[in-house]
Amino acid sequence: MCRFARSGIAALLIGAAALAASPAKADIAKAISAYRAGYYKTAFMEFKRLADAGDPMAQFNLAVMYLSGKGVDRDVKKALELHRKAAEQGLALAQHGLGVLYYQGTGVEQDFEEALKWFHKAAAQQFPNAEFNIAVMYFNKQALARDDFEIVKWVSLAAARGFGPAQYRLGEMYEKSIILRRNPEEALHWYRLALKNGQTRAASEAIARLEQRLKIAKGNEIAVSINTAPQAGTEAAAAKPEAAAKPEAPPKPK
User: Fold this and answer.
1) Residues contacting residue 63 through CB under 8 Å, at least 6 positions apart
2) Nearest in space to 206 (alpha carbons), one of 188, 220, 224, 193
3) Do 210 and 194 contact (CB within 8 A), yes or no?
4) For the chain, which end, N or C, has fewer CB atoms within 10 Å of the first or last residue's CB respectively?
5) Cα dist from 54 to 3, 47, 58, 60, 80, whole Å
6) Is the pLDDT reported for residue 38 higher than 90?
7) For residues 51 and 59, what is the distance between their CA atoms, to the nearest angstrom?
């Protein structure tokens, strides 16, 4: 259980997945390609040009660059300002990111209620990182009372949308009977999905551990079945004792 509590909040990210939300999609794609290729200054200048024109995706990505200090001097206050501008335009990535900043107290006084507000705004747009973070806050009783139903609901929503950390956590909940009834097969199902969605090391270790346990358990079941099964001839001996214990004939005199 403690491990879930320490799982933390899903972090910020450069968001190529949301390109379709940007009016300047081609320019944003060009800037993201430059960023990924390591041409940070080129990416920064392109993001800034678009951000100054009010593009929320550019504002968000520029905020991430200010946070990381890649292509520009690190400026947390500027990152917060840009996150807010993009979030207020309804960009789920930025709403989630602003929630993370409030949750962590990065560039602003830590405020769980404000973090939760922005996570809910992003979750309303089916953003799985934010859904998972709401579950974490319910679990940790941060701005919320502990509510097991809500924890399962939000983790399950994020997991169903393919969010690896939520899939891994759901597997752990089934494996270790955290809130949910222990179910090794269901746990294995979610661990395998988590493995496909980036949780490589943790999920691999969990799958190996659980498969070994299930193999041992299956072997024990087979052993018990064999040991308790009636042996050949036993039933016949019970019905006809003389057939099972027939004395040998005495040797004939020579």
Assistant:
1) 78, 79, 80, 81, 82, 83, 86, 94, 97
2) 188
3) no
4) C
5) 41, 11, 8, 11, 16
6) yes
7) 5
